[in-house]
Amino acid sequence: MTAVLLRRRLSPSTISPNLFSNAFGATVYVHDLSRQFSSSNGAAKFDFTDMTRPHTWYPIARRKKRNVFLHVGPTNSGKTYHALKQLELSSSGVYCGPLRLLAWEVAKRLNKANVPCDLITGQEKEVVDGAMHKSVTVEMADVNHEYDCAVIDEIQMLGCKTRGFSFTRALLGIAASELHLCGDAAAVPLIEDILSVTGDNVQVQYYERLSPLTPLKKPLGSFSNIRTGDCIVTFSRHKIYKLKRKIEDDGKHLCSVVYGSLPPETRSRQATMFNDESSEFDVLVASDAIGMGLNLNISRIIFSELEKFDGLEMRPLTVPEIKQIAGRAGRYGSKFPNGEVTCLDAKDLPLIRSSLNCPSPILESAGLFPTFDLLYMYSRSHLNCGLCQILEQFMENAKLSPNYFIADCEEMLKVAAVLDELPISLHDKYLFCLSPADMSDEILSQGLTQFAHTYAKTRIVRLREIFNPGTLKVPKTQTELKELESIHKVLELYVWLSFRFDDSFPDQELAASQKSICGLLIEHFLEGSGFQKPLPKKLRQYR
Fold it and tell me: Could you write out the DSSP letters of every residue in 480-507?
């Protein structure tokens, strides 16, 4: 897939000054926005970079007297279980999770309990007849609908430099009579401070771990000491497959793998194989992607290292990261209720032990990002600027209270720089910038660029004219595997865009089916090294 590069500079389309839709589908009237800003001497003076009172952005939530319950404690403490029981008993409600896997899991749980529940994520929408409940990824939370009960999971992620603003938006904006927040106790003081101006009633419930987690006194030693139920954690695709081969060469175990760039469906099925006692795949090799979103029957977490590359540099794992990963060992009610934690290198033992024995650092601030309405109003005094320049100037001039920080928008700026060459509206550019696009992934970057150019030219993006299914094949090397994972992300991007651009991306079903085929081909590689195992009949054309 290659991008068609358009060199000429074109002027941006104009936007209606009265009405537009924000990135989450809500209708916003510009004249309502002005009420948030002060006036002097009878003349209105607006500062659209003033983000010091973000709670005022959500009038529906502010009209309610919300009862907010914080369920805080370590992993495997039952905090989320108790919050979900309240959701299950409510007349209407929404679950907001950080990952699609968690949204899937909760939707399945509620429907199984005869509580009809819709599933809404960035890439899928499954509507159940009569449903008064929704299970969504946090970015899809609807702040214009009222609920009896709402749950926000992993609420400490409001401190995340890239995604924290979505959790802040849900915290301030969800209009629910009861709002249940689940996460690390480190978030409690910040949340209490943020909600001190909203009029909400806040209660905190602390939980203890349901089963013990023991840091071992010795490292693993020889790989012959690997046993059923072990999970070795490392932080790159190359190291994951290197460890998988090393363990399997001994002939005693087969390894499932879980890491971030695997399709969510594949991660879920790899976890299912590992959890299945009748499966031959009895050891897990994983990245920190196991930290949330998967129910795993792990006996022992083994850290291969305690540092990771974060996209910019190699850095040590933080205390919360070590605790989140280590806490996946031992699961109440499973075959391995008592968890153990160790490492490969003896020098890492003291840091593991000290991290497990100390509380996570208190969160100091929560993420914020300007809503489209703020950027639009700001842009009206910067008519010759593209979205990239508007974003940069807005961020430079933004005014914040001490409880907040501006989200890292480097990825959005990269996308905006591409889009500013195109004759599309500011709102459409904003939507493209919110898409799940990693511009450091060459194939995904090319996919987004070609989608945007085609949309700008014809307003209809046909996947059939861009994507050739004949290029799909079973990967035989890690390089081919990485390429297939990127193609899967391009297809996910198309589906994401199809939900937000009405009829402009009409091949949603084709993209979804090709995405599923990519997942099956990746799984075949994982389970049989891509060529050691006969292909299922339905995949033989992809040899």
Answer: HHHHHHHHHHHHHHHHHHHTTSTTSS--
Instruction: State how many domains the chain has.
Output: 2
Q: For tokens 């490492």, what's the residue?
A: 343
Q: Which residues share a beta bridge with 50?
A: 399
Last residue of a domain, one of 327, 356, 385: 356
Helix 478-498 / helix 237-248 crossing angle, nearest 10 deg: 130
The reply to whether 59 and 168 lie within a common domain is yes
Residues 237 and 202 in one domain: no
Q: What is the mean pLDDT of residues 72-79?
A: 94
CATH number at residue 84: 3.40.50.300
- How far apart CA 260 and CA 39 sit, in angstroms, is 49
With bands split at pLDDT 50, 70 and 90, how would you rate the model's confidence at 294?
A: confident
Residue 382 lies in a domain: no
Q: 269, 275 in Cβ contact below 8 A? A: no
pLDDT at 77 over 70: yes
Confidence (pTM): 0.88
Q: Are 337 and 300 in contact (CB under 8 A)?
A: no
From the list 109, 94, 262, 83, the residue with the least C-alpha distance to 180 is 83
- What is the pLDDT, as a whole number, of residue 47? 85
pLDDT at 492: 95
542 has a pLDDT exceeding 70 = no
pLDDT (0 to 100) of residue 528? 67
Two tokens at 337? 């209720």
Alpha helices in 224-318 (DSSP H): 237-248, 264-275
Between CA 387 and CA 393 the distance in angstroms is 10
Domain region containing 91: 54-206
State residue 464's pLDDT score: 87
- Whether residue 130 is found in the same domain as residue 218: no
Mean pLDDT over each residue of the chain, to the nearest integer: 88
Say if residue 326 is in the same domain as residue 261.
yes
SS (H, E, C) 213-228: EEECCCCCCCHHHCCC
Q: Supply the pLDDT for residue 539.
A: 52
Task: Please enumerate in sequence order all residues whose Cβ is within 8 A of that of 440, keeping only pairs 6 or more positions apart, or say none.
Answer: 311
For the chain, the residue count is 543
Q: Please report, as a single letter, which amino acid is at residue 532.
A: Q
**59 and 201 co-located in one domain:** yes
Range from 16-20, 52-56, 463-467 that averages highest in pLDDT: 52-56
Q: Which of 306, 330, 356 is the last residue of a domain?
A: 356
E strands within 253-353? 254-258, 281-286, 300-303, 307-309, 314-316, 339-343
